[in-house]
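My current task is to audit a protein record that another person submitted. I need someone to confirm that the token line plausibly describes how this chain folds. Take the sequence as given and treat only the tokens as open to question. This is what I was given:
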Amino acid sequence: MQRILVFGATSAIAAAACRRWAAQGARLHLVGRSAVKLEAVAASCEAGPSVTTAIADLQDMSAASELVSASLAALGGPVDVVLIAHGDLGLQLLSEREFSEAARIFEVNLLSAVALIVPLATALEDQRSGTLAVITSVAGERGRPRNYTYGAAKGGLSLYLQGVRSRLVPAGVKVTTLKLGPVDTPMTEEHPKNPLFVGAERAARDLVRAVERGAREAFIPWYWRPILAVVRNLPEAIFQRLGFLSGR
């Protein structure tokens, strides 16, 4: 029986992944901010043999180490998978005018994740097994006017995970960077949808598969890998002339 720990378990994608793991018979410990939403996610995982929950503010970085220790202990044995899934798009236009919003976006999407990764990486290194999976974003592949503050935070997280991955290889620990494209969830409900959007269930399916195969970096869905290979390498002068890429 796998033991799986999920931070940010109430997000639509994480909740869908939890249901898939529960159906496979995993033991789950779910951490989130809302007691009501946590209860709903746990209830939706009723097929699983055991689901426990803990309420926590993941932006309280001073409590991250203690939270990790308590969460690992709650599983009652070696952890097989840890998923860090929380994040927030923030308000791009506001972040361009008010540093407080820019700082908040970086805290939510980069620093609060790092605060968890530091003790988690050490615990997995000592355990000498397990997978650390972290959701980042395709927005981190290139700065675009419509979301560059969020993109910079997620891009920084992806780069940080590269170093953690290489550090943990000798210990037999896998680190999976999950680079999500746009997903139709409550976080994006005010954003215009296009054919590149996918639903939370599809994203969760691809996420679980990436973790199962031990992927180092997974673009979700897969088609973002070739798309971003082109976008990432466009000369800036050309990129800035393409309104569908560089526009608001």
Q: What stands out?
A: The chain has one domain: 3-246. The first strand starts at residue 3 and ends at 7.
